[in-house]
Amino acid sequence: MGGDGEDNTLDELGRVMDWNNFDVFALHEKSGGKALSVLAVHLFHHFNLFNALNLNQQRVTRFWVQIETGYQKVPYHASVHAADVLQEYAWFLNLPEVRNSLSPLEICAALVSAGIHDYDHPGTNNNFLIRTNHELALRYNNRSVLENHHVSAGLQVLQLVKENFFLSHLDRKSLVNFRRLVSSLVLATDMSVHFQLQTDFVSKFASANGKLNLEDPPTRELVLQLLLHAADLSNCGKPWRFAEVWGERVVTEFFLQGDKEKQLGLPVSAMNDRDKSHAAELQSGFIKTIVLPMFEAILPFLPEVSVQLENSKANYDHWRKKLTV
After folding, report:
1. pTM of the predicted model, to two decimals?
2. pLDDT digits over 119-162, tens only?
3. Are 190 and 148 in contact (CB under 8 A)?
4. What angle do CA 31, 71, 33 make, to 5 degrees?
5. Catalytic site residues?
């Protein structure tokens, strides 16, 4: 890519910390389908990780390109979704209240977690894999099946390919801490732990009288977990022109799973049944029960998330209007 393509990509990357105007779909198109790898390398520069951790840019780039290639071409959980979540998580990490408490290695682990959080996603959920006795369900004993796979397979791309292992120069303790944090963050994206994660954060915030001690490692990790989970759901908190696209994509993936369930003679949940559900109904319900309470829980800690909260409320209204058409 060269000339105008590079200029256009740089223009889009220049908006990476502009929540309402960064367009991951435009970046994906302008970069020739490489939004994830281009964005990730840019963010490593943005957070000064190359200098702070003495990273080899060629290895970093190779790693991200291989991760991008490993995402399957499914309607929603594809590499462009990973890029979207990466940008949203970086936005949270860049807030002074968060960034000033993190070490370079923690920021690196956080960005890697976002980038691999849905690595090699097959387009079906954990329940489907368990009910069909998929090899991944057997391997991970029916527990956070996909999340365990994403983090394990993603870290193998990093550590088992010498040319990708951009952290190989670090000491053993640092590498162990890096892997443990990445695993912890990705596993926290499992929707089955959503309510417990939110409850733990609200309880911690209340017990600290509204002043979290981010010098405390467990508290810092809890915040990183919640913010990655929030980023994973944050396309509902983007302006409608983006949120609508994501809503249609995720429901398309749900319905394709429902089609497979019908073919296999499995019970089909209403959410996955194209004959019984509508994108507007599913998305408005998700925003009301999951997204809005989550941002409301984060707001006292990070007042900046008012933008996500207001967008989510507006998007809820947009989806509800679609139900009346």
Report:
1. 0.96
2. 999 999 999 999 999 999 999 999 999 999 999 999 999 999 99
3. no
4. 15
5. 77
